[in-house]
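During the no-cost extension, the postdoctoral fellow (Dr. R.K.) reprocessed legacy sequence entries with the updated structure-token encoder. One reprocessed record is reproduced below for audit purposes.
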Amino acid sequence: MRAYFQMFAGYNAWANHRLHAACAMLDEADYKAERGAFFGSIHGTLNHLIVTDRMWLARLRGETLPPHGLDAVIFHDLATLREARSHEDAALSSHVAALTDEQLAGVFRWTRIADGSVVTQPMWATLTHLFNHQTHHRGQVHGLLSQAGIDPPSLDLPVFQKASGLGFIA
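Re-encoded structure tokens follow.
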């Protein structure tokens, strides 16, 4: 399991980097334009992802959650957001790399912000949700980039696996 989640942490960072690079091709007005997405704009959606990743990393480390709501805009420009995203991805990758298979199989408890319910599940299930959540919202941004006239990059897992050598036999 450890190698599986290390691959997803690497994929997550790779996909975020590619998506943010595509977003940099937009002017600020198009980047921040209301597009009818759940978090409004490309900028709002990317902020949601970093807010939730910071919450998840705090949970995983046993730290106090950041004080932001799920729709908070904590970065007001793409350049600052990209830099923070890079640091967040590195921190998440480092945390995942330190986990053992025993820890991944172990019980993890966390509290949902939306309704205050306590969730008890294996750590691997929690990480699966974290990476799936990223993929879900990256997909939304991918579509929003198309609406804005930008050809979005491929974010397919096999493209990452081939580029990184993970999951391919030569």
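The helical segments are 2-23, 28-32, 42-61, 78-98, 101-105, 123-147, 157-164. The mean pLDDT is 96. The remaining legacy entries will be reprocessed before the final report is submitted.
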